[in-house]
Write a structure and sequence with these properties.
Blueprint: H1 2-5, E1 12-15, H2 23-42, H3 47-50, H4 54-60, H5 73-85, H6 89-98, E2 111-116, H7 125-135, E3 140-144, H8 151-154, H9 156-167
Parallel strand pairs: 1-2, 2-3
């Protein structure tokens, strides 16, 4: 979206975009993500054992994946350890906490917002999706069925199809 404001995008497909939250909503998602970072560090060593169960994977990743149980144990462990090892986790959250998308009227490229119908991080999803549409005149919204905050994990073919539709 920022590149589109600068005229450097032919089209935009924004997937689960941050920056459309009210302060209270942002506080919820940022606190949740900060807790994720702390939890990842705490369970680093025990992750292979803890995440061996599909039910635990579903619960552990429920806020970002609608289908967390589909992750293999190895994928789940890598994901947890990636968060724990990331030196950019907290600085990125600090920046996200300060940032809010503005000046959407400057976006002239065709814009489509893609939101998981089971979004659980950027809530309330319907209101935030509505703010996206209001922010960028003429934009479109595609709800990704059965998907959460990271729909490319939940249903890659559906996301690819939506991106192709957005760029057409």
């Amino acid at each position: 979206l920022e590149l589109a404001k600068d005229g450097r995008a032919a089209s935009v497909a924004a997937i689960s975009p941050a920056g459309f939250q009210l302060p209270r909503e942002a506080k919820f998602s940022m606190n949740s993500l900060r807790s994720t970072g702390k939890s990842a560090k705490l369970m680093y060593a025990s992750a292979p054992k803890v995440l061996a169960s599909p039910l635990v994977r579903k619960l552990a990743f429920a806020q970002v994946f609608a289908k967390g149980e589909r992750l293999t144990t190895e994928e789940a462990v890598r994901s947890i350890r990636n968060v724990a090892d990331s030196p950019g986790w907290d600085p990125t959250l600090d920046e996200l906490e300060r940032g809010r998308f503005t000046d959407g009227r400057q976006v002239t490229a065709p814009t489509t917002f893609l939101w998981g119908a089971k979004e659980r991080l950027l809530i309330p999803r319907d209101r935030q999706a509505g703010r996206c549409l209001k922010s960028v005149p003429g934009s479109r919204l595609i709800w990704l069925k059965g998907c959460g905050h990271t729909p490319m994990w939940d249903d890659p073919p559906q996301v690819a199809d939506a991106i192709l539709k957005a760029s057409a």
